[in-house]
C-alpha cells in the first residue's frame, strides 16, 4: 500500500507540473488583458494535432515539433490580438465579451480539427527506447517525466522573463494596476500583443507535451483541458502565473491520490470539492490578491 501511495504522489507531482503550465498560459492572458480564453484547451489540441502532422509528414518527434509549433502559435497569438483585442476592450463588459468570443473560437477550432483530422484517436510515437522504467519502488512514465522537466524549464524561463526583464516587469505592473501603468507611459497595447503571443506559445508547448504524456489525443479533449486550466488558476489565484503552478500541483496530487482510495470514476470529484472549499475559504486563490471593486 505504501508503494502504491508513493507512486500516486510521484505521478500526481509530474502531472501537476504539466497542469500548472496549462494554467499559466491562460492566467497570463487574464492577468494582463482580462481576457477569458475559453478556447484554451482547443488551442492545445490544435498544437497536439500539428505535432502529430509534423511527425507523420517529416518524422519529427513531439519534442522537435515544439520548435516549429511554438513560433507558429506566437504569430497566431499576435494576429488574434490585432483582430479581437480592441473590439473586446471597447465593449461594456470585456470579460464577458472575451468569454463569448473565445467560446466561438473554440467551436471553430474543434470543427476544423474534426474536418482535417477526423474524430479518430491519434497518437505520436514516443522518441524514447524505454517508455517506462522503475526508479526504486516507483514506476515512472518516461514521457510524463520528460514532459514535467520541460515544463519546469518553461516555468523557469517565464519566471526569468517576468522578474528579470524590463518587459516582464511591465507585464507584472499591468497585472497589478493597468491604469497606473498607462499613466507612466508604458505601451499597454504593445505589451498585450506580446503577452498574447507568449500565452499561445505556452499553449503550443503543452499541446506537444500532451502527446508525450497521454496515449492518444481526440478533438473532444479540448474542453477537458479548458476546465483543468480554469480549475488550476482559481486554485492558484487569478492573475498569479506562479500560483497556477501551485494550483496545478494541488490538482494533480488530489486527482492521483484520490484514485488510490476511490473508484476511478469518482476521483475527479475530489479536485472539484477542493475547488469549492477554496472558493468558500479563500476566493482569491492560494497566491492571489484580494481585489476591491467600488
Task: Quickly describe the structure.
Helices cover 75% and strands 3% of the residues.
Q: What's the SSE blueprint?
A:
Layout: H1 2-33, H2 40-58, H3 62-89, H4 94-117, E1 132-135, E2 138-141, H5 142-164, H6 166-176, H7 178-183, H8 188-213, H9 221-236, H10 241-261, H11 267-281
Antiparallel strand pairs: 1-2
Helix pairs in contact: 1-5, 1-8, 1-9, 1-10, 2-3, 2-4, 2-8, 2-9, 3-8, 5-6, 5-8, 6-8, 9-10, 10-11
Would you write up a description of this structure?
With 294 residues, this protein is mainly alpha-helical. 44% of the residues are buried. The protein has a two-stranded antiparallel ribbon with strand order 1-2. The chain has 11 helices and 2 strands; from the N terminus they run ααααββααααααα. It has a single domain, classed as ABC transporter involved in vitamin B12 uptake, BtuC (Orthogonal Bundle). Helix 5 crosses helix 6.
Summarize this structure as a short list of keywords or feature phrases:
single chain; 294 residues; two-stranded antiparallel sheet; 11 helices; mainly alpha; 3% strand; ABC transporter involved in vitamin B12 uptake, BtuC
Helix content: over 70%
- CATH class annotation: Mainly Alpha
Shape: globular
Low-pLDDT runs of 5+ residues are: none
Q: State the secondary-structure class.
A: mainly alpha
Q: Strand-residue fraction?
A: under 5%
Continuous helix count: 11
Number of domains: 1
The SSE order reads HHHHEEHHHHHHH
**Gap from first CA to last CA:** 53 Å
Mean pLDDT: 87
| Strand order, sheet with most strands | 1-2
Q: Please name the CATH architecture.
A: Orthogonal Bundle
Largest sheet: 2 strands, antiparallel
Radius of gyration: 19 Å
Quick one: how many beta strands?
2
CATH topology assignment: ABC transporter involved in vitamin B12 uptake, BtuC
Amino acid at each position: 500500500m505504501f508503494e502504491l501511495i508513493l507512486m500516486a504522489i510521484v505521478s500526481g507531482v509530474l502531472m501537476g507540473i504539466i497542469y500548472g503550465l496549462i494554467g499559466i498560459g491562460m492566467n497570463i492572458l487574464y492577468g494582463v488583458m482580462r481576457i477569458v480564453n475559453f478556447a484554451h484547451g482547443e488551442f492545445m489540441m490544435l498544437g497536439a494535432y500539428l505535432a502529430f502532422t509534423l511527425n507523420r509528414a517529416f518524422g519529427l518527434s513531439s519534442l522537435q515539433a515544439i520548435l516549429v509549433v511554438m513560433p507558429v502559435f506566437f504569430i497566431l497569438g499576435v494576429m488574434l490580438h490585432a483582430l479581437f483585442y480592441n473590439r473586446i476592450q471597447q465593449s461594456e463588459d470585456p470579460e464577458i465579451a472575451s468569454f463569448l468570443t473565445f467560446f466561438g473560437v473554440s467551436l471553430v477550432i474543434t470543427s476544423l480539427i474534426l474536418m482535417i483530422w477526423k474524430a479518430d484517436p491519434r497518437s505520436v510515437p514516443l522518441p524514447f527506447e524505454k517508455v517506462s522504467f522503475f526508479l526504486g519502488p516507483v514506476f515512472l512514465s518516461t514521457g510524463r517525466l520528460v514532459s514535467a522537466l520541460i515544463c519546469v524549464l518553461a516555468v523557469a524561463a517565464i519566471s526569468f522573463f517576468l522578474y528579470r526583464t524590463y518587459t516582464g516587469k511591465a507585464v507584472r505592473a499591468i497585472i497589478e494596476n493597468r491604469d497606473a501603468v498607462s499613466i507612466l507611459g508604458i505601451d499597454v497595447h504593445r505589451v498585450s500583443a506580446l503577452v498574447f503571443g507568449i500565452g499561445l506559445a505556452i499553449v503550443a508547448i503543452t499541446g506537444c507535451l500532451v502527446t508525450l504524456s497521454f496515449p492518444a489525443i481526440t478533438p473532444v479533449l479540448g474542453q477537458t483541458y479548458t476546465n483543468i486550466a480554469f480549475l488550476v488558476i482559481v486554485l492558484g489565484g487569478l492573475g498569479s502565473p506562479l500560483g497556477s503552478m501551485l494550483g496545478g500541483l494541488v490538482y494533480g496530487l488530489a486527482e492521483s491520490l484520490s484514485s488510490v482510495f476511490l473508484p476511478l470514476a469518482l476521483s475527479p470529484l475530489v479536485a472539484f470539492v477542493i475547488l469549492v472549499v477554496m472558493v468558500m475559504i479563500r476566493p482569491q486563490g492560494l497566491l492571489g490578491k484580494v481585489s476591491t471593486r467600488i
